[in-house]
Specification:
Blueprint (H helix, E strand, L loop, with lengths): L2 E7 L2 E8 L2 E9 L2 H13 L4 E7 L15 H16 L4
Parallel strand pairs: 1-4
Antiparallel strand pairs: 1-2, 2-3
């Protein structure tokens, strides 16, 4: 049984296979319609393999902000408004 690691980045998807010498690239797929079609064919070709997915995405966003001293209720409302602004009410 072949083990295939799928490395998902913000630019592409890479398929890697484990060998005695380490991980070796099999194929690369772009995030477009051609890449999706090639990936579907790839999965059909290796349908008996075990797939493992690793992600390396850069959407992490760190922000520092100061909040004035407020009552607990006012502070909770302010934090809610700030989070809604930053994350556009994403659940």
């Amino acid at each position: 049984m072949m083990n295939i690691v799928l490395l998902l980045t913000h630019t592409h998807l890479a398929a890697l296979v484990q060998t005695q010498q380490g991980a070796r690239p099999l194929r690369y797929f772009l995030h477009d319609s051609d890449g999706e079609a090639l990936f579907a064919d790839f999965v059909a070709e290796y349908k008996h393999a075990h797939f493992y997915v690793l992600t390396d995405l850069v959407e992490e966003d760190f922000q520092f902000d100061t909040i004035p001293r407020l009552s607990r209720n006012d502070q909770a409302q302010l934090l809610k408004r700030k989070l809604d602004q930053l994350f556009r009410a994403t659940p």
